[in-house]
Amino acid sequence: MQPHVKAATDCIYEEIMLTVQDYLRDNAEYNIGQQIATADREAAYARGKLIDMTADRDRLRAAMMALKPILDSAESDASGNPEWEFISARVKAARNAIAQVSS
Question: How far is CA 73 from the centre of its chain?
């Protein structure tokens, strides 16, 4: 191969390689940027869901704590009645649930 043809071929090859490298770098930067943006959106959504779940948990805890006097009354009213076993088991289950959300 003649020297000037080889030099031209090398120059063209080098330009092609640089163009491919630029394309790959730009493409990788774009893809990484998109993945970061997606991760940021998903993290913001998850934070919002966590706040919602915390508020729901607090409302549930308050509602269950409000049941304590009702459970005491139901247990007292059922004491000595034929319904005692039925009521007692449910009152005990409700108290266990309240204890779990209270801790």
Answer: 40
Distance from C-alpha of 74 to C-alpha of 63, rounded to nearest angstrom: 17
Q: To 10 degrees, the CA torsion angle through 81, 83, 89, 94?
A: -90
Structural domain harbouring 103: 67-103
Same structural domain for residues 47 and 71?
Answer: no
Q: Is the pLDDT of residue 1 over 80?
A: no
Residue 51 shares a structural domain with residue 14: yes
Say what the pLDDT of residue 38 is. 95
The dihedral over CA atoms of 79, 85, 86, 90, expressed in degrees to the nearest 10, equals 80
